[in-house]
Q: What sequence folds into this?
């Protein structure tokens, strides 16, 4: 039997192209459903775990999926904004604790998450270096952000404009990195966390500029009266918040009307959660309240339906490929008929010939199995990163 494997290996090594083609075909047939299973299981685990840890989300009426994906996983699809007053209303009910979120901007491809320090306690985030943000213009970056951008506490990170031509005149904000989070193995690893007011600074709702009442540049002043000074658009705004200009930053208008993308509501108990949800059941309401776990369950149900379709497609493709492999072996036997006749004339029995051909199949299957295990090992090792890149 060992001799059969030796001869089969020598033949396969001689027919390298045929050998590699057969191994690649069998590997692809086996690896597709297995790798898909690993990716879907990891995506389900990440999505469900984070959603179940978030009791309720309040946002603008519209797509509940967009609201959940933006608030929990910081997806690019930004829901319609609500106002800070909605967070105050939740707190005023004394049924839940409110954590505001404003997830709209990015910094070098990573989402900027405007929130409060309560978010750190809620997500149980730990600092690996530095301190939490304490001043306007400071940020705390996730472990993956720090690793990919090579940043550490004390460095600077510039926010990215939403468009190439920002007609609103909002300048990128140079933020100081106050701290770096320890790996949380969640979407927070890829986030840039800032105070909610810093997010408003990026939008231009909170800004700082020189004291126009003391400006001597006549081109900057449009009108000067006894109690008011009107400045032109030429007045340069600060693009970095420092100790020297911190006091120059100020709000315009009522801050309760400033935008949020969502509010995380943390009810005190199940009864409080039921009462709070009941207050948002009015179909004419501008707000919606959703349990993220229910939304993710619906999403996963749809994903599993898609997986069933993919499994069926892969099954049919696999059957077609197996038939093609059988055809290749059959044609190979026809082409090798003279070799088989020679082996038979040398005194080998039909059983020996069958052993030689069987040894070839076993060697091909063994190489395919080893290659499958290696690929599955790589997919399993990078499953978290693949899921965050492809789905989250």
A:
């Amino acid at each position: 039997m060992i001799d059969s494997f030796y001869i089969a290996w020598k033949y396969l090594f001689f027919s390298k192209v045929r050998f590699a083609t057969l191994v690649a075909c069998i590997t692809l047939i086996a690896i597709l459903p297995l790798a898909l299973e690993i990716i879907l299981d990891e995506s389900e685990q990440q999505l469900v775990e984070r959603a179940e840890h978030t009791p309720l989300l309040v946002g603008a009426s519209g797509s509940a999926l967009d609201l959940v994906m933006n608030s929990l996983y910081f997806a690019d699809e930004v829901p319609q904004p609500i106002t800070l007053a909605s967070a105050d209303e939740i707190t005023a009910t004394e049924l839940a604790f409110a954590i505001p979120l404003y997830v709209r901007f990015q910094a070098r491809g990573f989402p900027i998450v405007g929130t409060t320090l309560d978010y750190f306690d809620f997500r149980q985030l730990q600092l690996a270096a530095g301190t939490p943000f304490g001043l306007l213009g400071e940020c705390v970056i996730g472990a993956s952000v720090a690793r990919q951008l090579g940043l550490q506490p004390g460095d600077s990170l510039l926010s990215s404009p939403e468009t190439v031509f920002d007609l609103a005149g909002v300048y990128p904000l140079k933020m100081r990195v106050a701290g770096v989070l320890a790996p949380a193995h969640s979407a927070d690893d890829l986030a840039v966390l800032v105070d909610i007011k810093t997010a408003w600074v990026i939008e231009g709702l909170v800004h700082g500029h020189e004291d126009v009442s003391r400006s001597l540049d006549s081109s900057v002043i449009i009108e000067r009266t006894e109690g008011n000074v009107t400045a032109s658009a030429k007045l340069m705004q600060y693009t970095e918040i420092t100790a020297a200009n911190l006091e120059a930053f100020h709000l315009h208008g009522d801050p309760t009307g400033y935008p949020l993308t969502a509010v995380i509501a943390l009810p005190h108990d199940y009864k409080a959660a039921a009462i709070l949800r009941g207050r948002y059941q009015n179909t004419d309401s501008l707000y919606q309240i959703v349990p993220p776990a229910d939304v993710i369950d619906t999403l996963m149900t749809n994903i599993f339906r898609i997986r069933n379709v993919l499994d069926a497609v892969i099954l049919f493709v696999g059957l077609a490929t197996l038939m093609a492999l059988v055809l290749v072996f059959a044609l190979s036997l026809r082409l090798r008929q003279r070799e088989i006749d020679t082996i038979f004339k040398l005194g080998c029995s039909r059983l020996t010939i069958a052993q030689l051909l069987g040894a070839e199949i076993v060697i091909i299957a063994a190489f395919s199995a080893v290659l499958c295990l290696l690929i599955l090992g790589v997919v399993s090792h990078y499953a978290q990163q693949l899921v965050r890149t492809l789905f989250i």
Observations:
- The first helix runs from residue 2 to 14.
